[in-house]
Amino acid sequence: MALIQCGKKRNVAIGENKEETLKLCCSHFIAKAQEAISIRGTFSVALSGGSTPKTIYSMLSKSPYREQIDWQKVFLFWSDERCVPPNDPESNYHMAMTSGLQTLSIPPDHIFPFKTMVHIPQSAEEYDLLLKNKVGGVLDLVLLGMGEDGHTASLFPHTEGLLVTDKLAIVNDIPQKKTHRLTLTFTCINQARNSVIYLFGENKSAIAAKALLEPDDIQECPVQGVGTEKHPALWIMDNAAASDFCAR
Ligand code: 6PG
């Protein structure tokens, strides 16, 4: 596994292949969990949605990874959520739990999905307060993916949510998808002690290279808003997703 510093806000870890990179994602998750639990007695993590993390959640729920975390001390949040019922196949909560996390001994009162069956602006306000009250606005780890348009969480190009700085969680209107979604803001993501972006597959290679090597423009490429000098983002990519980045 190669580890590359990419400017002052991003570090890049490249796995040799998909299988090795998945193991790297799990090992990193476990290391951050064990670190947080040893220091503060708990581990708070915001889970990402989409398809990439399904396998990671499944692996964490099984040996040899399952046994390496005291799940009773874990608090689950979400990086974003679609405005669908919690049992909807499109739900990020549903995806994470059914991928295996529901088999772990995480206390039910430690699991905090966005409420999607209430007035959505109220749900965002409640989540903002929840993050402030439960973790003081500082998560131990935020998991993220990236779309081929450079979005991360539900912070899409040219959307108003990109500019919100006084909230930890918001409703973001996404005209290009004709929908709105609940999402953490850059303020919340970059206050976290750690953030990690999981990227797999050739289809992400061009946008990954753009995000990592070209000047920041978060309106065009929101994922460039993740990471600070104090809390650099870790990009974990397989060799396919890293192919353009390595070729430049
Ligand atoms: C979502 C995610 C979103 C996702 C990217 C990448 O709700 O869909 O939060 O930001 O991480 O779209 O999705 P894939 O992992 O499916 O490529």
Commentary on this structure:
The protein is of the alpha/beta class and 248 residues long. Helix content is 30%, strand content 20%. The strands form 2 sheets. Strands 1-2-10-9-6-3-4 form a 7-stranded mixed beta sheet, with helices on both faces. A 3-stranded antiparallel beta sheet has the order 5-8-7. A hairpin with a 4-residue loop joins β7 and β8. α1 crosses α2 (53-60). The structure holds 6-phosphogluconic acid. The site of 6-phosphogluconic acid has 14 residues, from loops.
Summarize the structure.
The chain is built from seven helices and ten strands. The chain is an alpha/beta fold. The strands form two sheets. The protein has a seven-stranded mixed beta sheet, with helices on both faces. Strands 5-8-7 form a three-stranded antiparallel beta sheet.
The total of helices stands at: 7
Give the strand content: 15-25%
Give the strand tally: 10
Average of the residue pLDDT scores: 97
Bound molecules: 6-phosphogluconic acid
Distance between the termini: 19 Å
Residue share in helices?
25-40%
The protein's oligomeric status is: single chain
Overall structural class, as computed from helix and strand content, comes to alpha/beta
- Shape type: globular
Topology pattern, helix = H, strand = E: EEHEHEEHHEEEHEHEH
Radius of gyration: 17 Å
Give a short account of the largest sheet.
7 strands, mixed
Indicate the low-confidence ranges by residue numbers.
Answer: none
Please list the strands of the largest sheet in the order they lie side by side. 1-2-10-9-6-3-4
